[in-house]
Amino acid sequence: VEEHQAELLATSKAPVGDASGGFVAGFDLPKIGRVHPAHLPLFAIRKACPQTWTALTGAKFSFAMTRDPRERFLSALLQRMKEFGDAGAIRADDSAVRIEAEKVCAWLGERDRFADLEYVHFIRQSDFIEDNGQRILTDIFPVDRTDFLAERLRARTGLDASIARSHTRRQPKRWARGVQPVARFAARRLMPR
């Protein structure tokens, strides 16, 4: 089963005719459903990928990068609106963000653990670190301190790595604020989907 899953990951190109030329955001994982391969919580790995689970739980060094929960939630909202709502460029103070936040909070309030593709960025960070209350990963690093990870990686494995922080949210420049309402209108109403 896991070899087939790895093949899906490696070959999950966008369908013919898709102008993006990119990779498909998710695939169907037996026993779990449609998931994002880069965002699998530990319970999903344990349930659907027993060989990977065995390797992970037996590893001498494993780690997760964590973010400030509030920053992560806002980033996840904006990401969800872009990926699944065609929001385009959107500011955090846009009323659509508040409306989406209310919908997401209601959805999250009805669930415990999940790996649903459309809500993947809202998975609890602890679900990537522990399973059923037991810590599985050996190390946790704040995402803004990749130097700690590089230092630990060097100490544990001898590998010397420079790890750039590239997962940052970019707000429009101050001069573009006046253009944003027009750009949003054009993106939502005039551009082909």
Give a short synopsis of this structure.
With 193 residues, the protein is mainly alpha-helical. The chain contains seven helices and six strands, in the order αββααβααβββαα.
Can you describe what's shown?
The protein has 193 residues and is mainly α. 42% of the residues lie in helices and 9% in strands. The strands form three sheets. It has a two-stranded antiparallel ribbon with strand order 1-2. Strands 3-6 form a two-stranded parallel sheet. The chain has a two-stranded antiparallel ribbon with strand order 4-5.
Indicate the topology.
Blueprint lengths: L1 H10 L15 E3 L3 E3 L6 H7 L1 H9 L4 E4 L2 H17 L9 H15 L20 E2 L2 E2 L3 E4 L3 H12 L22 H11 L3
Parallel strand pairs: 3-6
Antiparallel strand pairs: 1-2, 4-5
Based on the model shown, name its key terms.
mainly alpha; 193 residues; two-stranded antiparallel sheet; 7 helices; 6 strands; 9% strand; two-stranded parallel sheet
